[in-house]
Structure formats: C-alpha cells, structure tokens
Design a protein that fits this description.
- Helix 3 crosses helix 9.
- Strands 1, 2, 3, 12, 13, 15, 16, 18, 21 and 25 form a ten-stranded mixed sheet that branches.
- This protein has 598 residues and is an alpha+beta fold.
- The radius of gyration is 29 Å and the shape is elongated.
- The chain has two domains: 280 residues, 3-Layer(aba) Sandwich (Rossmann fold), CATH 3.40.50.720; 182 residues, Jelly Rolls (Sandwich).
- The protein contains ten helices and 31 strands.
Amino acid sequence: MELSSSLKLSSPLSPSIINLQGTSSSNIVNFSNYTSLPKPFLQHDDRSRRLRHQQASHSHSVNLRSYRKRVTAKSESQGWDFGRFVKTLYFFNGPPSPLKFVSSVFEKLTNGSTEEPVNEMETSGIILVAGATGGVGRRVVDILRKRGLPVKALVRNEEKARKMLGPDIDLIFADITKENTLVPEKFKGVRKVINAVSVIVGPKEGDTPERQKYNQGVRFFEPEIKGDSPELVEYIGMKNLINAVKDGVGLENGKLLFGVGDNTFKDLPWGALDDVVMGGVSESNFLVDLTGGENGGPTGIFKGIVSTTNNGGFTSVRTKNFPEAENLSAYDGLELRLKGDGLRYKLIVRTSQDWDTVGYTASFDTSPGQWQSVRLPFSSLRPVFRARTKSDAPPFNPASIISLQLMFSKFEYDGKLNPTFKEGPFELPLSSIRAYIQDPVTPRFVHVGSAGVTRPERPGLDLSKQPPAVRLNKELDFILTYKLKGEDLIRSSGIPFAIVRPCALTEEPAGAELIFDQGDNITGKVSRDEVARICIAALESPLALNKTFEVKSTVPFSEPFTVDPENPPPEKDYNEYFKNLKDGITGKEALEQSTVAV
C-alpha cells in the first residue's frame, strides 16, 4: 500500500508509537501541532504480526491513531521462526535465489583474513561559469584555467565561445531562460558555480562589434535593453539555474533523508533484517514515536532483543531500495542525530540495486543517555562484503545511494568482534539522517549582481546623484528590481552563497585599492579583472559565506587607473576584506517602509 506524501498531525498527543514497516514509499509528517489521532491508519496484531492498513481519506493528508508494538523475541528462545524468515524475504522483494541468499548470510559469520586497505573515495569538483563570454565571465574562466582548476563554461553560442575562450574549453550549451535546455546530465560533476549572467544593456545608437561604448560604462551613453527582458534573464533565468545546479552544489544545512526536518518528519520504508535469515532468534523493529524525540517531537526508534542462540548475534533494519538513487555527491558524509545507549552500531550504505552486494560501512560508538550528532564522512566508509573488507571494490559513489541499513551486531569486520556487544534488549532513538557539508562551509554559488538594486524606490534618495541604471530603472524594464528579485532567490535557496555587487564596471586592470561595503549605498567604479578575482576568492573563503556586499576601487571616475607591467601590484588577500562583512545586510532594510511595485 502506498502512503500519502504528507501526514498531518494536528492536536496534543499522548505518547504514541507508529510501526510503519512495510510501507512502500517515503512519508512526510507535518507536526507543527501534535494531536490525538482518532482514526486508525496502521494497526498491529501481535498474534498474527500483520499490519492492517486503512486509508483515512482520499486527500493527501491522513490521520494516525496511536498504538504500541512490542518486540517479542526472547534471548532464551530456541525455535527458529520460519515465518519471519519468509516475511523478511518477501518485504525486500526477495533475493534472486533464496538458497544463494541463505548461503551468503552464513558466510558472513566466518572469520575473514587480516584487514585490508581501503580504496580512497574519488571526488569531483567542477566549477561552472555561467555567462562565460561576458566581460567578467571570460576573465573568471581564464583565471581558473591558468590555476589548473576544472571548469565548464555555460554558453549559448558555441562559435562565439570557442573564438573567445579557446578550442579546448569544456562547454555546456544551454540558455538559462529556457528551462528545457538545462538538462541535469549536463551538470554532472559541477560542485561550484560563478554566475556572471546579466541582461544585455547597450547604446540606443548602436555599438562596435567589440562593444567599445558599452565597455566604457553606461554613464557614457543612452542605454536600452538588448535581447531578453530583465524579468526573463535576472529572475526566471536565475530560478532555472538554481534548480539545475542545486543537487550538485548542495544545501548549507544538508539534505534530509530521514526524520525531523522543518516542521516535517520524513519516513522511509524500513524493514527488519535479523539473524533469523541464518537460523538465529534475534528480533528487531523500527518504530516512529511521535513524542519520544528531543523536545517532545517525533523520532524513529531502532529497538529489539539480540541473542547468540543458534549461532546468531545480529539485528538490523534496512530500507527498501529507493525508487530513484539519492545523489549526495554535493555532500561530505551522513549525520545521524540519535540518543545513545553506550553501544557500537553500524551504518551500511548501498549503491547497487542488487541484494547481496558490497555495503559501504562505518561503525560508530554512542554515549549512554545523551542526544548526540554522529558524523560519518563518506571517506570513512569501508567496502564490506560478507564481513570482509573488499579492497578491490569500486570507490564509494555518493551520487548513487540506493538503500540504508542500521545494524547492532556481535561481528565487526575481518574477524574482529564488537567490543560493546551484549545480549538482550537494546533501543536506539534516531531522530534524523541527513547528508552534510563539512565545516568550514564555503560559498558554492557566487553571483555577480549590481550595486544599486535596492535604490530605485528607496525613500528619500536623491536620484540625480545616483548612477544611470538607478535613475532609469523603469525605462530599462525594471532591470534593478528584477536583479534584486534574483538575489532573493539565491538567499532563500539554502545553497551556500556569496553575492558580489560591483559598482560601474571598467576595462581597467586589477590592482587598485578597494572598498567593500554593505547596505547598497556606495557609487564608483571597479575593474572587471578585479571582480573576477573576488569571485574566485569567495568560492574558497568561509568569511564570504552568505554575504551580500558592494565593491568599488578608491580611484575616482575622473582618474584612469593603470599598472606598470614591469612592476605589477601584489596579489590581494581578499579575506582581509571578507572578514569585516556581516550576515543579513542587503540594503533592503531601507525598503521596509516602502513597497517596490512592478
């Protein structure tokens, strides 16, 4: 039976435990208000051990009635439960051959050889430059390539891109204004983005093929929008680009796979996989306790009784294979939020649809009686097959995660034993499993915006003293208004970001002294070369994380800035500028009393 994707809970709830084993799809439980749940959804009959499912309504929301299910395995029991063995096979859709499956499980109990070295995980880290043929974008590409960093250029015109960037540049042909061109396969391996896409502004009277008038700056000509509108490029295009790269660059707070999220509880189809498969009597289960977690919230509970009777000694719960592989390549590991009991457990991650295959495994210790976060880096996962480390196994692929498994076992790896193992009952509350980005987090999406985006409708501002784009915002189809709306999409996306707002861009060389500011107040000029370098530095700096800032040089418009090629200025340490920036300052603070109308 398939469950609805949203289970809403709405009134105070007496302690209740829900056994969701056997469901065939993930569930999201909204729990902003806990409620008593009058209608039965899942009930357990201890005598027959069968779940009876009753759908409460035809909507996407259902009510859950509280109930408890007791784990009934007893350590002194000698009888093997053939029915539970068959049920286990059935729940996981059965292995290709039951005899082969039983044989493989027995082999897991044999002592292995000495521990073998583990292949290190391979990682990729392509930097995508969007708007790569623009004034800032092409400079970014050039610097990245000179530094030997892997880069892809997102462009619309192949001929123009090859001529400008070189014949060997790795290109992605797409148009951010056309969602259907942003095929996910094109962005495989992309981990960071520098977005220099901008609506095209040019002189009404026309320009040279090299855009000489444009490169002088908009203050030197009467501007108009050329090509796609600001709404299409700066807002809709930004939305399309974020959606295309989001899985690859990741979320700052991680990706929830199971458990408590923002006012939700995401469940997975867990099923027991105990030593009954090789003749043992241990038994476990996975429950959802709606009030047993931290601060009275919901939590999963892996619990049971483990016994070494009949040569047993392990219990586990495993998810069914996910309908689609989870792509966690943007992350560095899995974080479990749990309440420890002093025992050592295992997390097993599988990347194959096959039943009897390598599981990438990490053991973790817990502290008794304490809620704690346990981080398991992907680089720590060892490939294990039938209790033996497989040094010749393929490297772990975080882009293709098929199932998860929690285990409490007497056995470790390669003949070693779990030093904390003891027979009898155990209970491990688990409130969440999420993928995480290792600290310190740095921006994954750096956007080149524009100074002035909050000024067109700012109360009390003297527009005559503002740059042309501010004065002509309406005439230029609300260019700055849509640039601001595009920025807001980045800030609300959850992606680690930095937003660079240059003042008027020039063709002058980098090297002038700079002023970084926040609040969208400064005017001036800054070199495109300098902005390119700032963007690349921001990608590597935790100090730039989630910062929005403006930048200009100290050189006034009336003075050209030049550099002696024989004596160039020293490279800047941009962290000296980033370190003074603050979170949450965008310039929109001045608009709180005014509404920007489009």
